[in-house]
Amino acid sequence: MEKELELAARRQGITKSQFIIAAVERALGRKDPTTLYHQVMEKAAHYEMSSGTPDEDLPPHKAALRQRLRESYARQQEDYAAYLAERASGQGGRD
């Protein structure tokens, strides 16, 4: 068991003590990965991207890529907002 602990901690890039603390927190319900994921995604849903360099100052291929990425990001945000709305109304069967 000691070797498995050492390998698991090494895979996560943490010490054995940190691994044990995280495991105990999860077991006690203090660190639920699903809850943490939903909290992060909730914050991300309201995140505004800064524009940085104006598109007109970029080469055409970079401006086109940036536009596709923005469209993809907007679709993902809309999908997640719909998921949250569905979940809030009690229809989201997955948790």
Describe this structure in words.
- With 95 residues, this protein is mainly α.
- It folds into 2 domains: 1-31, no CATH class; 32-95.
- Helix content is 68%, strand content 0%.
- It has 4 helices and no strands.
- The protein has helices at residues 2-12, 16-27, 33-45, 60-88.
- The mean pLDDT is 83.
Quick summary of this structure?
With 95 residues, this protein is mostly helical. It is built from four helices and no strands.
Helix/strand/pairing class, anyone? mainly alpha
Give me the Rg, rounded. 20 Å
The number of distinct β-strands equals 0
State the separation between the terminal residues, measured CA to CA: 31 Å
Q: Note the main sheet.
A: none
How many discrete structural domains?
Answer: 2
Binned, the helix content reads 55-70%
Query: What order do the helices and strands follow?
Result: HHHH
- Strand proportion, as a percent range, falls in under 5%
Instruction: Tell me, briefly, the overall form.
Output: flat
State the low-pLDDT regions, or none: none
Q: Overall pLDDT, averaged?
A: 83
Number of helical elements: 4
Topology of helices and strands:
Blueprint: H1 2-12, H2 16-27, H3 33-45, H4 60-88
What descriptors fit this protein?
95 residues; 0% strand; mainly alpha
